[in-house]
Amino acid sequence: MAKLAGQLVEALDGLLGIPVPLRVQAWDGSVAGPPGAPTVVLRNRRGLRRLLWQPDELGLARAYVAGDLELAPGTDLYETLSAVARFAELPEIRTMTLGPRDVLGAKGRRVLAVALRAGALGPEPTPPPEEVREARGRLHSRSRDRAAISHHYDVGNDFYGLVLGPSMVYSCAYWTPEAKSLEAAQEAKLDLICRKLGLRPGMRLLDVGCGWGSLLLHAAEHYGVTAVGVSISKEQVALARARVEEAGLADRVDVRLQDYREIVDGPFDAISSVGMAEHVGSEQYRIYADGLYRLLAPGGRLLNHQIARRPDYPGEPHRTSPFIDRYVFPDGELSPVGSTVARLEEAGFEVRDVEALREHYGLTLREWVANLEANWTEAVRLVGVGRARVWRLYMAASALAFEQNRIGINQVLAVRSTEAGGAGLPPTREEWLVRPAPGATAATPAGTDLGDRRSVR
Fold first, then answer.
1. What is the phi/psi pair of residue 303, to 5°?
2. Is the pTM of this model over 0.90?
3. Residue 282's closest CA among 315, 309, 313?
């Protein structure tokens, strides 16, 4: 039918009561929408049918992942997602709910009439295979957590290598003035964590959710610690162990396929948890915090590096992103930074420092998107076009969320005080961020006074 895009845009604007900030190109070649706005392409009737059945973020994601919805040539992904995010945050849109029943109202019937004439009505299309089906088991049980982690991390180490680059660090980099590349910024982040933890030769480090082992390797190579890393991703553990062997550090670094709730061989002098607590869940967070407190020696430090969401709008319930939950991080939960600090202190920790790094994560994600796009053909060969689309969409949208202060990332440094109340920290941040001199040991720290507690070793 002719001029389908114009009829769709007019009917949709009438349904929402506000113009959609996108141009639409329909499968008949027609185009309509605000001049100069980003252009999306509905490639077929199935794409429109997906949006009719699921007229929200999830429907858009399904259409894009399945290839039913595209960006027009020359349309910028970030510009498109930014326009959609601003639109979604408008009060009249943020509080609106639309489902199949809502579409049957007077304004909705106009949309349905256009779809009917276009031959787009029909049964709900099957979601793309990349979507997680209904989860089984109790939320955050060990078996369900393993399945959720496997969905995200066990997609192929080669694919992660394309996206993350040689550092194989899947968390926010630290963009110091000297860091001119992603790899340099990731090394700066690893070193920042080691310095905040006050690592010295002879100390024992636990890295919870150790990924592919990059922090373990950095701490062992540059700070002389012995280290234990745990992850419940089989592919992460396999590569981390191989990297440890290749570096000749198998006698000092132990990588385990183990849930954090199963660790029993404490105490440790220091504990790092980088990008892991987002998987714990609010109901389990005290178990997580209590467990880390139990594993940490008195006078030891915890570095908790965690994404945070903004507090909810007054009177509005918290809404988890259905796209993130179904395609990216099943069962993942973000909490405001204040809640994280409160739970840690309830477990017995004294929080000594909180550093916000959200602008750093925006830069990091843009680098990962650029890596994916530069290696698109190989990425599709490794994981398929659907999963590659999931990652492109998720990382680009996340970059904007950090840049626009819709989510944040914080490093929380906490200590388990000694019985006498000592924290073992120098009086100023500048002092405790000093890297120890070569050869310094846990018993004889270099430079500033880091306390007289000997290593648990």
1. -115, 110
2. yes
3. 309
